[in-house]
Amino acid sequence: MNIIYSIFKKELIDVLRDRRTLMFMVVIPILITPLLVIGSIKFQEYQNKKSEEKILSIAFINDSGDYLIKELLSNQKGVKVVEGIVLDSLESFIRSDSLQGGLHIDKNFLNNINSNSSGSVKIYYKSSDLMSKSKKRMQSALESYKNDIVSKRLEKLKFDEGLLEPLDITNVDMATAKETLGKAIGGFIPYVLVMFIFLGAMYPAIDLGAGEKERGSLETLLSSPATKFEITMGKLLVVSLTGLVSGLVSVLGISSSLFFIDKIPVQIQETILELINPFMIGSIIVLMVPIAIFFASMLLSISFYSRSFKEAQSLMGPLNMVIIVPLFLSLGPGMEMDHATALMPLINVGLLTKEILAGSVELIYFIETLFSLLFCAAIGIWFSVYWFKKENTIFRV
Fold first, then answer.
1. Which residues pair with 102 in a beta bridge?
2. CA 260-262-268 angle, 5° bins
């Protein structure tokens, strides 16, 4: 055990001297991540404001004698009504962005309305254009027109408008603010957490395997009294620790960034503080440890196999997709925590994290998830030690 600790201490000092490791372990998670979160939110707010303020040119083609719709459309914020457009050329105008939309009133529209039938109206727009703002503004004008016609018809027939609303529905949401927010951000947190554990472990793993091959220091370590198992475990503990620190720092960076966004209500900030409790922090750390060990063992195995630093990077790159897919699946609709999903690596982390943040986690699912992750970590350790013991792998050049 003393030998493993000595190797761990020696490798940790070497890793902390590497600027790339410190960059991915501390600097990026705690500085870059908050900037990305705040920047993306601010950019989205800017884009929404820009789309709301943009003046949209909408063609109004009226083959009937009713001009109320034109008036309602003109009253919509950010709408410029364009007349004199021929219906046959409307499509080409919209596709070329000369117009953002068009409204065509059928020639029998007014007759149908007056006879208590439905008038035909066509809305032309591009779904990719400014998040379909033109469609929404045209629909808003038509909705106002429809409500006016319905009111007049009911008044003419001397009917109460309550006839159209036979149900008085009151929605009672039994979920607390903590549960709602926990479920909402619970899918995002494990995604960031796992990715930064992987990134934080990747460069130390490359340096302690392929990097030492290139520097020629691995042979010196192999000639020491330490066994290959002790050497592997010492390196594995260092890589696991860097991944674990990177994951924790990333969550800290994201959490702190939420308090620098001025438009977040005080109630939500208070709910976030309520979510960050000792149980939540402890539970997340317990889940992170086997994930970090598993990633460290796999990355070290690849690093031991690689001839050079560059080859190790190339081999580890595709693993990002292997990690992203199960985490993405955990965000899908209908994915819930049960005895089956609790045994699926990474999927179980995403689902369980949502339950932990919502305060509705069941102990049996936590145990099953932890067992699944520990099992994967044990397999990873065995594989890493087995791979390091093969001389044709260590001395592969």
1. 59, 124
2. 85
Q: How many CA atoms lie within 13 A of 349 on its CB side?
A: 29
- Comparing 47-51, 107-111, 210-214, the range with the smallest average pLDDT is 47-51
The three-state secondary structure class of 362 is: coil
Number of domains in the chain: 2
Q: Taking the model in full, what pTM does it have?
A: 0.67
Give SS3 for 103: strand
Say yes or no to pLDDT of 130 above 60. no
Question: Of the candidates 143, 164, 185, which is a domain's last residue?
Answer: 164
Residue 160: half-sphere exposure toward Cβ, Cα within 13 Å: 4
Residue 51, domain member (yes or no): no
Q: Are 234 and 6 in contact (CB under 8 A)?
A: yes
User: Is 192 found in the same domain as 278?
Assistant: yes
d(CA 113, CA 26): 67
102 and 219 housed in the same domain? no
Quick one: tokens of 163?
A: 């006839």
Please tell me whether residue 81 adopts helix, strand or coil conformation.
strand
Question: Do 329 and 251 fall within a single domain?
Answer: yes
Q: Which domain holds residue 101?
A: 56-164
Distinct helix (H) and strand (E) counts, the chain: 19, 4
* Residues whose CB is less than 8 angstroms from the CB of residue 107 and which lie 6 or more positions away in sequence, other chains included: 63, 64
CATH classification of the domain holding 73:
3.40.1710.10
At residue 249's C-alpha, the angle toward residues 385 and 5, to 5°, is: 35
d(CA 302, CA 311): 9
Q: Any idea which of 105-109, 115-119, 159-163, 324-328 has the lowest mean pLDDT?
A: 159-163
Q: Are 306 and 209 in contact (CB under 8 A)?
A: yes
H-helix segments, the chain: 2-16, 19-22, 33-53, 68-74, 87-95, 109-114, 133-156, 177-186, 188-206, 212-215, 218-222, 228-257, 266-275, 278-305, 309-316, 319-330, 347-358, 363-389, 391-394
Among the three residues 113, 142, 164, which one is the final residue of a domain in this structure? 164
